[in-house]
Design a protein that fits this description.
- The protein is built from no helices and 19 strands.
- By secondary structure, the chain is an all-beta fold.
- A hairpin with a 2-residue loop joins strand 4 and strand 5.
- 41% of the residues are buried.
Length: 249
């Protein structure tokens, strides 16, 4: 098993497990956290109590999401199928709002098309309150070199309804797998932006500031996104004023 982990300062944790055939993963009982498992690609069998669930997904570009949501104090075990699995495990701290009940499947709804022209992308929201205690989770696909999370926006300041404070973690896939994408982050102006190259199976976090993501020309870029706030539990995005005019085009 190959494992990579990304954690934000507010306790949101994203772990990527690349499981080989027959490998096992234990999902621990966490009384103060809620958990999501999302299958990116492959085949897995998940057992929770007396229930057994089997799921497979060819890849995130052609097949819809499948996974499970685990309220606090829920344990499970996962076994990879004959072709292994690319599996994302997300944990988020629970505050005053506590989720209860058994584990439940996560299934994709019809993707929403956002943006247009060179920043058109497909967005699917998989988890959000009130089903969760605060965890927000979904998937985005930017095809053929397009931008996403665009125009650049932030969710750094708790000032609802104008803006909410959420920290975010990402897990990427690229098609073809030899390609790449770019994650831009900045606080004030894009001239001061930091760029991070993302490859197939990269993970990353954005804890503050404006951000935008681009796929390399001729490539499709997929990413799972998970967001969590200490007190805010929904997205209210503040678009960079220098680029907000794009929202009216």
């Amino acid at each position: 098993m190959t494992t990579a982990l990304a954690r934000t300062p507010n306790g949101l944790t994203l772990t990527r497990h690349l499981l080989t055939a027959g490998e096992h993963l234990a999902v621990e009982d966490r009384p103060d956290q809620e958990t999501a498992l999302i299958l990116i690609a492959g085949h897995i069998t998940t057992r929770t109590g007396d229930d057994t669930h089997i799921a497979e997904r060819a890849d995130p570009f052609t097949a819809p999401a499948v996974g499970w949501y685990f309220p606090a104090s829920t344990a499970a075990s996962v076994t990879a199928g004959p072709d292994g699995a690319d599996l994302i495990q997300v944990h988020a701290p629970l505050g005053d709002i506590r989720t209860t009940g058994p584990a439940s499947p996560v299934t994709a709804v019809t993707p929403e098309t956002r943006g247009h022209r060179s920043w058109e992308r497909e967005v699917t929201t998989l988890l959000a309150p009130p089903r969760t205690g605060g965890l927000l989770l979904g998937e985005t696909i930017a095809r053929d070199g397009r931008w996403s999370t665009y125009p650049p926006h932030r969710h750094s300041i708790s000032d609802p309804p104008r803006e909410t404070a959420l920290q975010e973690a990402f897990a990427f896939r690229v098609r073809p797998a030899t390609g790449f994408g770019v994650l831009l982050t900045y606080d004030d102006t894009v001239a001061d932006a930091c760029s991070t190259v993302v490859l197939d199976t990269s993970i990353a976090t954005v804890t503050h500031g404006y951000h935008a993501i681009a796929a390399a020309g001729g490539h499709d870029l997929y990413y799972l996104w998970a967001a969590h706030g200490d007190t805010d539990h929904h997205f209210a995005l503040h678009t960079d004023p220098a680029h907000a005019w794009l929202l009216d085009t």
